[in-house]
Design goal:
By secondary structure, the protein is an alpha/beta fold. The protein has one domain: Vaccinia Virus protein VP39 (Rossmann fold, 3-Layer(aba) Sandwich), CATH 3.40.50.150. Helices cover 31% and strands 27% of the residues. The chain has helices spanning 21-25, 27-31, 33-40, 43-50, 65-72, 84-96, 113-116, 135-147, 162-166, 216-225; strands at residues 55-58, 76-81, 102-105, 119-124, 149-160, 183-190, 195-201, 206-211, 228-235, 248-255. The chain has a 7-stranded mixed beta sheet, sandwiched between helices. The relative contact order is 0.16.
Length: 256
């Protein structure tokens, strides 16, 4: 991985630098699209339909998995990402699937509703918001998401379950998110300032992502502070869940 500038807590100054071309080329191996689709079992499509959503902007599209699923399910989809390597991969996947999905290389601070329009829903998945280490910066990002939504529009943000991880209960079931069988996910440094995920492939290639270990209650408070109401959460796609026994927490809220 490229060497990156660190601040006082030793976190990466530029999250996109962590997504090297080599790592991104292996991202879909890590996910395994078919197994992930089976594990999600239409959760996001059903959730969006239950809120009457037609138009969606995927603001952390990564390699394009959810943009493809939503487009194939009949939603109007726009995809953005702040990593040029990820967006290049996403566009290749859109072409592979024969889908015409409008896409833009945008970091979150440059998301402009005058350019992109407003949507019924904003989805920010893949624990992407955890790349933002400071609360005031996350609040700015959430305000950008709010500006992209029509009144009453739906926000969906997911995150790694750092409540359990910081309590020493790291879990990577392989059923829902990282479903590939030729790679494993483990932890490096974990403390209140930083969490390091280590992705090890069977051929001995290894990559690392360093993120902020954002607690679910922390994110809920920031969402509500940013002009959203009616917060709800799910653990691994279930409304009733054990906070110590789920991989991911999914947050939903409506724009005021």
């Amino acid at each position: 991985m490229n060497q990156m500038t660190r601040n006082k807590h030793n976190e990466p100054a530029n999250y996109s630098a962590q997504y090297s071309t080599e790592f991104v080329e292996r991202w879909d191996e890590l996910i395994d699209w078919e197994k992930r689709k089976a594990g999600e079992d239409g959760f996001f499509e059903n959730l969006l339909r239950s809120h009457g959503v037609q138009s969606v902007i995927d603001v952390s599209t990564g390699s394009g998995f959810h943009a493809v699923q939503l487009k194939q399910a009949g939603f109007e989809v726009v995809a953005t990402d702040g990593s040029s390597t990820m967006l290049t991969k996403a566009r290749a996947n859109f072409r592979k699937q024969g889908l015409d999905i409008q896409s833009h290389y945008r970091d979150w601070h440059s998301l402009d509703p005058q350019e992109l329009g407003q949507f019924d829903a904003v989805v920010c998945l893949g624990s992407s918001l955890c790349h933002v280490f400071e609360a005031h910066d996350r609040l700015r990002v959430l305000a950008k998401f709010r500006a992209l939504l029509k009144p009453g529009g739906l926000l969906i943000v997911d995150q790694r379950n750092f409540f359990a991880i910081r309590a020493g209960k790291f879990k990577a079931s392989g059923h829902y998110y990282y479903c590939g069988t030729n790679a494993s996910v483990s932890l490096g440094r974990v403390d209140e300032h930083l969490c390091e995920f280590i992705y090890s492939f069977d051929d001995a290639e290894q990559y690392k992502l360093q993120v902020y270990p954002l607690l679910p209650g922390e994110l809920k408070g920031e969402v509500l502070k940013s002009g959203f109401i009616d917060h709800e959460s799910y653990g691994d796609f279930e409304r009733d869940y054990d906070m110590m026994d789920c991989d991911f927490v999914i947050h939903t809220a409506r724009a005021v």
